[in-house]
Amino acid sequence: xxxVLPPLREVIARHGLDARKALGQHFLFDLxxxxxxxxxxxxxxxxxxxxIGPGPGGLTRALLDAGARQVIAIERDDRAIAIQQxxxxxxxxxxxxxAADALTIDIASLGEAPxxxxxxxPYNISTVLLLSWLRQVTAFERMVLMxxxxxxxRLAAAPGDSSYGRLSVITQWLCAVRPLFGVDRRAFTPPPxxxxxxxxxxxxxxxxxxxxxxxxxxxxxxxxxQRRKMLRSSLKALGDAEALxxxxxxxxTQRAETVPVEGFCALARAVDSAGAAAPVxx
Length: 282
Prior knowledge:
It is a single chain. This protein has helices spanning 8-15, 31-40, 58-65, 78-90, 126-134, 149-156, 166-174, 213-225, 231-234, 241-247, 261-277; strands at residues 27-28, 48-52, 71-75, 95-99, 115-120, 142-148, 175-183, 188-189, 196-203. The chain is an alpha/beta fold. The protein has two domains: 2-203, 3-Layer(aba) Sandwich (Rossmann fold); 213-276, Orthogonal Bundle (Helicase, Ruva Protein, domain 3). Strands 4-3-2-5-6-9-7 form a seven-stranded mixed β-sheet. The longest helix is centred in the last third of the chain and has 17 residues, at 261-277.
């Protein structure tokens, strides 16, 4: 049904939707690519698809064309709201538009389960958004997201890789990460300075190992904040580093980039245990 709508370039010109750097906007006009992203999200005929920053609506159209039962589009740019309303008129009752900043929305409460997030994310807030969703990861069935290639490299990196870091640990602790395909920068208007990659992120039935999210964040921040140092040095800010490392079954001479996700979870449990055992000041 998207063929009843005008071409995206015509829509952009009519609504004055020039890409704004402050909003991290890079518009994807290639309908073959938007269709490929929509198909990567699986069966959309049940539950809810949540799209962030739909802009001129190329991906929105593809999702609805692919049979999405309900799409909820979150858009902060007033110029794009009118475009989304035109799309909603073609698919009555299947597109809901929320005029808001995605950083302020509890998207885990939107629509009916199963929920999928499918989006070409604004790159300037993409990792912040992802971390906020990971805190509520059980609310989502999967995410199919476009990031800068270097971000996907970090999400999927294994211990020992140069890209392995905090984002790798926290994401892989909760989810299976699978890069799907790259997108050349020339596919966008205006072209971003970097290449992009679409990635599938599927929440695990249970995390890789027991840990508290907040503590795991503290541990990985300390370890990777000084990634060239051995753990016995980088973890000093967390307490008795040698004792924590021993409790986690790791070696004090290891560096953060060699520790697997389960090792960081063990460190987080050791930190929590040490905190619980600490005497309460009089």
